[in-house]
Design a protein that fits this description.
By secondary structure, the chain is mostly helical. It is elongated and about 75 Å long.
Length: about 220
């Protein structure tokens, strides 16, 4: 369903709790279990983030009491913006995988482009730019294969979770930080991916003499 249709259905179910209950009961057991657990995990994670006041990943008894008191009081919870520390953590965790993507893509393009230009390019008589374009095509294809590997490597580093609430994730500030981190990460990775140029040594072909030089001679 589209978002407007989903919102309309949610409003209908919210206005008729009995209908919501009947709808959930009508689901097959496996789908009912998935739907209920999916909702519970998201809600519990949201409440855990709210209760964990110091953001250390552990809820103390004092933090639990404060959280429970606020919930039982029935007061609307303020939508606090993401803190500077959360934004810094988000920037680092977002930037690192993009550095890997940029590095692998550019490094493979340089290596493959050089190989094509020095071997296949000589046989086919293609230009250096054409060889670079072919190398870029190959590196993009390999990047799709290595995409999951780079993400798993970044996850294995144990980066700190910024612990953003759903409201914070939808904020313009958080989206801007993620976009900036992605842009800078890819650019830095691409610059680092130029490192194969330091070891790829090829003989420089002498440039043919121009007509002017021949005339002067």
């Amino acid at each position: 369903k589209s978002l407007p249709q989903a919102a309309q259905l949610a409003a209908e179910l919210a206005s008729e709790p009995e209908k919501l209950h009947d709808t959930i009961d009508a689901l097959p057991p496996a789908q009912r279990r998935f739907a209920c657990l999916n909702w519970a995990v998201h809600e519990l994670e949201e409440e855990f983030i709210k209760a964990d006041a110091d953001g250390d990943g552990v809820i103390t008894y004092a933090e639990f009491r404060v959280w429970a008191t606020n919930v039982l009081s029935g007061k609307p919870e303020p939508d606090l913006p993401a803190s500077r520390e959360q934004l810094r953590i988000l920037f680092r965790t977002t930037m690192l995988p993009f550095i890997g993507f940029g590095f692998t893509d550019n490094a493979l393009m340089v290596i493959m482009g050089d190989a094509i230009d020095g071997h296949i390019g000589t046989l086919l008589g293609i230009s250096t730019l054409a060889a670079a374009a072919m190398g870029n095509a190959i590196s993009n294809g390999a990047g799709m294969v290595l995409h999951g590997t780079v993400e798993r490597f970044a996850a294995a580093l144990g980066l700190v979770d910024p612990k953003l609430t759903r409201t914070q994730k939808r904020s313009k500030e958080v989206k801007n930080v993620k976009m900036l981190a992605g842009i800078l990460g890819v650019m830095l990775g691409c610059f680092l991916g130029m490192s194969p140029l330091l070891v790829l040594r090829r003989d420089v072909k002498p440039r043919p003499a121009t007509d002017d030089a021949a005339t002067c001679a």
